[in-house]
Amino acid sequence: MFRYVHTNIIAKDPDKLIAFYKEVFHCKSIGEKRDLKGQWLDRLTGLNNAHITGEHLLLPGYGDDHPTLEIFSYDAVRENVRGEVNRPGIAHIAFEVDDVETTLGLMIHAGGSQVGELVTAEYPNDTEAVFVYARDPEGNIIELQSWRQKKN
């Protein structure tokens, strides 16, 4: 069997980031909080005395068990260079929303920020999409998108 299970974000302040994703993107708690440590975790992570806490949040638009957004924190979180949209590796996560501008406003009000401009792009079959890149309160990049029939 193969199935997509979760995406993980390591947070400096997991409680704040969990609240952000619940408020803005309607992610839901499913009772999967974690407080992990032990030799098995040290071996898995390659870190000494690793300790992870956090929670799995059900992503909107899916069933009751997966996929989830896993927001965790380590006791010792390394500082790094802020991600950019053209950096190798996972660049962003995307949410389809009813109204990109409204959701962007909610993100900013909840501590996020805008990266680039809000744009509308034309696609085949008289379809257009509205896109914007933004950041959550810890700098992770999120793409907001909304699809609709082209306005004539």
UniProtKB/TrEMBL annotation:
Which protein is depicted?
Answer: VOC domain-containing protein
* Matching InterPro entries: Glyas_Bleomycin-R_OHBP_Dase (IPR029068), Glyas_Fos-R_dOase_dom (IPR004360), VOC_core (IPR037523)
The signal peptide, as residue positions, is none
Pfam families in the record: Glyoxalase
VOC domain span: 3-147
Q: Give the highest taxon in the source lineage.
A: Bacteria
SUPFAM superfamilies reported in the protein's UniProt record: Glyoxalase/Bleomycin resistance protein/Dihydroxybiphenyl dioxygenase
